[in-house]
Design goal:
homodimer, 11 helices, DNA-binding, elongated
Chain lengths: 216, 216
DNA sequence: GGCGAACCGTACCGTACGGTACTGTGAATG
DNA sequence: CATTCACAGTACCGTACGGTACGGTTCGCC
């Protein structure tokens, strides 16, 4: 297992961050087709030459955009307290809602569309980045929560990754894909609460110990 | 509710089907970037002019490809027999494996990538087509199976769509997205069996009546 | 003030794509 | 045999993109 924290995080200058912001905005508004070098330069009030100097080429710009966005979405893990059944349920609900909110964010959707579109071309380099910096991070938060639940005797599971996989599937199902395919998001966002509740309830029925469910 | 079976299914000529096959092959091999009109014409030994005469424009070609592929994947629903607990579990397992097999197919992945890439541009026209002809069809098969299970007293659920959504999430989780992002598929295919088993087991624990599980 | 680095704006180049038009050809039809 | 039709093959056009080069401007530094 490696100890290296982050392989290469170039840490761009403020000016370059502004440019990346503009590029993300452009991508969100118009999709990959709108993300041309000339368009980015115009939107960010910079020159194409600077773009190539800073990011190498177009693929470098895309990678930088993903890294930049991932660096903004910091995943916090605050599971220090001793868990009660109610607290665990609360944390799971919070996690579910956060997950849905993140996946449904327009920037996240745009970047996932971008990476998926390039998956067959670049050997899934962008896809790996999204996986590594996106789901992996939020997965660690869930993993910590699950283990805390097990330590408190509230959850029972053998493999942690299996349990997380189940939780993820219960929460998201095919909602992410449907949003990526362009289905109207507003209709889904209103359902996030109910969806989270249903998922957490099912998850606790599957993995909760007798202590964690308010038995009759 | 409409009764129209299929809005417009142009039913292309054999020659045109060959062309669509070539186009799908091209798309699978090289992604959307490889799907140029000149490329399709060359691969299919036809002229660009014929392409435009048959399919109107490039978008028409894409739509035709989706419709064509969907017409090839016929979803059968054979739930005539009276269900026992073991038979229900068997059918669920079969459904789960089929679902994973379909979603992981290279043509399906390529078409989903294509539709997702165009989602922000064309108002999700291709996305709707994929949803309608893809998941909706296989969803009807699952729906029939679930209702048969309920009629036999083996399953207990209020809303059928909720139950199906749960089943889908348990089976697929984020596997579909990871495959779309380009993660190595061979490593996943070997896990389909275990995955299906885990999902069906969990689903039966959630929605199965006492009859359906071999209680101690 | 002189100087160099960073950078903007723009012009430019090669290429590739979507779409159209034209020519040739083989098969059916009378 | 003459005509027509469907089609392949190809040349062509306009456009747009990725990437590069260059002149002009600002800013810090000696």
């Amino acid at each position: 297992m490696q100890l290296a924290a982050h392989p290469h995080q170039p840490d761009y200058s403020p000016r370059q961050n502004d440019v990346l912001d503009s590029a993300l905005r452009l991508l969100v508004d118009g999709g990959e087709k709108a993300l041309t070098t000339a368009g980015v330069a115009r939107a960010a009030n910079c020159s194409k030459e600077s773009l190539y100097k800073w990011f190498g080429d177009r693929d470098g710009l895309l990678s930088a955009m993903i890294g930049f966005q991932a660096s903004k979405v910091r995943t916090f893990d605050d599971t220090a307290e001793t868990l009660t059944a109610a607290a665990l349920q609360e944390h799971l609900m919070l996690f579910a809602r956060d997950l849905l909110e993140v996946l449904g964010g327009d920037v996240s959707l745009a970047l996932n569309r971008l990476a998926i579109g390039q998956a067959s071309r670049d050997g899934s380099k962008l896809g790996s980045m999204l996986q590594e910096r996106g789901r992996r991070q939020i997965g660690k938060r869930a993993g910590a929560l699950l283990e805390a639940g097990r330590d408190a005797g509230l959850l029972v599971f053998g493999d942690r990754d299996d349990a997380y996989d189940t939780l993820y599937g219960l929460i998201v199902s095919d909602l992410h894909l449907r949003m990526l395919l362009g289905e109207d998001r507003d209709r889904m966002v209103k359902d996030f609460g109910r969806r989270a509740q249903k998922a957490v309830s099912a998850f606790l029925r599957l993995y909760g110990s007798e202590k964690s469910s308010a038995g009759p």
